[in-house]
Predict the structure.
Amino acid sequence: MLANGIYLAKLRLVEPFESYPSPAQFVMVWVPGVKEMPMSISHYSCDGELTIVFRVRGVGTQKLASIGIGSVLGIRGPLGKGIAIRPEWKRVAILAGGIGIAPTPLLVSALTVHGCETHLFWGAKTRSELFDLDKIFVDKPDRIEISTDDGSYGFRGTVLELFKSVANVHSYDAVIAIGPNPMLRAVCEDMELKRIDPMVVMETIVKCGRGICGSCYIRGSTKLLCIDGPAFRCSEVMHHLRSLD
């Protein structure tokens, strides 16, 4: 357990993935007796060790949090399109809201390999939802700023308010936001950020993970999260985010 209701699990794959996962790709995790659940990839090593970070939300994640060493799970992936690091990116800001911190280690490692300077801005509701980031990061961001909605730790306010208070928005080549949909909508609607057209890593219902069932349809587009995402430009998913009110 990393924090209140937040867990880290390290899984050893019987067979390593055929290809190294890209940032923001995910896996479907099957706990015996429970349906499959989509999980972000926090880290992966070529010998087949997969790390996931998750929040307990229902029966499936409760059971996942309670399993012990030697338990057998089903893993399907990596799924999704992932984020392609662009050569022109020299300085990147990552805004993570709550459990949106889960996929950021894989993203930071990929950016580091490409020589990018990375700044992480992490926001949570309260101090009890925070934990030592050294426990999940292999490559640490060049800068870390933290906020809580209630001011119990760090900056008082949302992660977007933190970002705009302590950083120059236009000094970044890319802004990537990961977190709950209301946070992503706020990022996409921000007038100053609209000029950059940030990238957002979204969550929605995922059942098949292969573009067959249509459960993860992005409203107002022709896209499915499981094969076209989960990372999109704000301009691609603004209608969908607004429809979630």
Summary: Residues 77 and 245 are 31 Å apart (CA to CA). The chain has a mean pLDDT of 94. The chain has two domains: 6-79, 91-242. The two ends are 32 Å apart (CA to CA).
